[in-house]
Amino acid sequence: MYRPSFHIRALVGASAMIAVASAVALAAAPASASRHAVAASTPACSSASLVIWLNTQGSGAAGSSFYNLEFTNLSASSCTLSGYPGASGVDLNGRQLGSAASRNPQHKPVTVTISPRGSAHVVLRIVDALNYPKGTCAQVMAAGLRVYPPGQTASKLIPYPFLACSRSGPNYLSVEAVQPGLGTVD
Predict the structure, then answer these.
(1) 101: which of 21, 42, 87, 139 fits an S-S bond (Cβ 3.0–4.6 Å)?
(2) Are 83 and 150 within 8 A, CB to CB?
(3) Could you report the per-residue pLDDT of 22-42, keeping only the tens digit for each?
(4) CA 14 – CA 23 distance, rounded (Å)
């Protein structure tokens, strides 16, 4: 009876293990690729699919008030937000008051997937306009906020009266990057 040498058996065994490992890797590759394709195929949230609202249960410190600006997905499918929204104070006619919100880099921007009826949030800071000299700020009562979801060119108006600067220059508003879930008051 023929008995293969140790080296031949080891070579055949190693070849079999390589073949099995290759088959497992090939079988797993489409699943992994499809997971990435699903994540990459989730569209950005459009302004039309979102309700944007201000949680007025804010907190205050050093002449500023902090609120959570909430983005709730009312569409039937998941969508994503990433980065910073655009925001500005507006008068009763919807005209911008002063400078648009600056970006606060408190959190690194991440892509947030929002399921249907789910939410994401950003922290909005409103500086007390009385902190600025009258000549620099020209304080007026804002009727609310105009908010653009990140990457969108259509905005939503949020009624919320507050004292704002009507002149460009003072950054009386700032926003942080979008974060998952509803915001919490600190």
Answers:
(1) 87
(2) yes
(3) 333 434 444 333 334 445 689
(4) 14
The residue among 174, 178, 182, 176 whose CA lies nearest residue 64 is 174
CA-based nearest residue to 125, from 158, 183, 172, 71? 172
Residues 60 and 36 both lie in one domain: no
Nearest to 175 by CA among 120, 101, 110: 101
- Separation of alpha carbons 120 and 183, rounded Å: 8
Question: Would residue 185 count as lying in a domain?
Answer: no
User: Does a structural domain hold residue 148?
Assistant: yes
Name the H helices within the chain.
6-41, 134-137
Kindly state whether residue 60 falls inside one of the protein's structural domains: yes
Question: Within this chain, do residues 61 and 122 fall inside the same structural domain, yes or no?
Answer: yes
Q: Could you read off the pLDDT of 51-95 as tens digits, one per residue?
A: 999 999 989 888 999 999 999 999 999 999 999 999 999 999 999
